[in-house]
Amino acid sequence: ESLVQKITEDNQIPVHLHVSVSLQYVAGLKGSALVEFFHGNIAEVENEELRHLMWSSVLFYKTPNVEVMACVLLSTKAIYFLLDDSFVHADEHQSADFWNKENSDCENSSFHLSCCFVLKLNDLQSVNVGLFDQYFRITGHSADHIVTCLTRDSYNTHTFIQQLMAVLSLLARTPSPEPVDKDFYSEFGSKNTGKMENYELIHSSRVKFIYPNEEEIGDLAFLVAEKMDGLTNLPSLNILLYVLAFQVNHVEGSAQNTSSLQPKTLILTSSDLFLFDEDYISYPLPEFAKEPPKRDKYQLADGRRIRDLDRVLMGYQTYPQALTFVFDDVQNQDLMQNLTLDHFGE
């Protein structure tokens, strides 16, 4: 009963995100009705148990530019992603190979089916946890089996990882052979380069849980310093905040005063505020990748100096909170710096 109650409490769509009618129906289910829905419509095996439910934005490796809302269901056999209908239509030419549309005759009916993507726990190879637990990437044995969950919430990430580890402990897998010399360096580092790799935890089910190490923050600080045209000396540059957020773009002239949400990574340093377009799905490179991704992990979208910040407006609605940053950039310093660098010498 406590598990059913917990799953019912978690069955809430984030207020700032809109979903299709079929997913709204799922979000309206409570208690035993939700469990019955899972066993009647989603579960592939009769004896599997629903252990955890989470609402999250997801990205697929094959369609890295399409972020879609999903209801993520973890059972004792698989991870199920109930997807928003809009995903299939958002990127027709890319997703045509990815999803086989057997239910195309439902197009004109009043009842729409959600797509459900299934990742069996036996096919799971590794889980990469993002910086500050803002997201995590689940990797299977092929490009079709790589999914990133953008929770934008360290608590949700932590809870899902804990539940996943508990479920994986139930799987019967043959144990991996023990290494010959089990010392610190062979476990966590490369003897050839002396460079520390990301911290890896190998679960008893042989699934790797990979966490970022301190060097990732160092690399990010170096990248941010580069974007600042080298005006700040690197040792004094500290990243104070890294958070996955949305940039709000108001759409004027529409019937309702709607706003579109653009996913952005917000990075705050002691002197600047940056917005980056981040690739959450392609890095680190999967083992089967034959060439690097087409775009960098971080692409600068906007950057402003804190000393040009005039005021911060805070909305009064409940979480998630809306913040408006008003900058006084009459001097347009950034443009002048770029002109100087490009046209008047080195």
UniProtKB/TrEMBL annotation:
List, for all copies, the residue spans of the domain called Nischarin C-terminal PH. 239-345
Q: Name one GO cellular component term.
A: endosome membrane
Domain named PLEKHM2 PH: residues = 112-176
Subcellular compartments: Cytoplasm
Keyword Hydrolase carried by entry: no
Q: Which InterPro entries match?
A: PH_domain-containing_M2, PH_NISCH_C, PH_PLEKHM2
Which keywords fit this entry according to its UniProt record? Cytoplasm
Q: Which domain of life is it from?
A: Eukaryota
Could you provide one GO biological process annotation from this protein's UniProt record? Golgi organization
Q: Which residues form a coiled coil?
A: none
Q: Which Pfam families match?
A: PH_NISCH_C, PH_PLEKHM2
- UniProt GO molecular function: kinesin binding
What name has this protein been given in UniProt?
A: NISCH protein
Q: Which organism is it from?
A: Calyptomena viridis (Lesser green broadbill)
